[in-house]
Amino acid sequence: TKMNRLLQQVGGRIDAVYFWPHAPDDGCDCRKPLPGLLLQIGERYGVDLQGVAACGDKLEHLIAAQAAGCEPHLVLTGKASGLTAQMLPEGLPAGTRVHADLGAFAAHLSGRLAD
Predict the structure, then answer these.
(1) Which positions ≥6 away from 79 have C-beta within 8 Å?
(2) pTM above the 0.85 mark?
(3) How far apart are CA 38 and CA 20, in angstroms?
(4) How far apart are the C-alpha atoms of 14 and 12, rounded to whole Å?
């Protein structure tokens, strides 16, 4: 509720919140690094996820993004805070783009819209 209220104050909104309610041993496909949760989002909105930018702060997020066909972006905040572009985790999907924080990721996306 707080998140929605704060976003409404600046003209934003959230259409849906997705989470996985399953434990690691439940064997579902929505728990990262599997792409099920991202695929559910694509289905809900009728969007082909091929090339859609997806960001995360953990290797599992990026692997799931790539498996869903998304373009992986790593933000160096949250779980990835303390990392630098020179100290990236082993196993990053090919083509992963790295951003200092969510603001830098948003600026990158805004720049693509301007092109």
Answers:
(1) 57, 58
(2) no
(3) 11
(4) 7
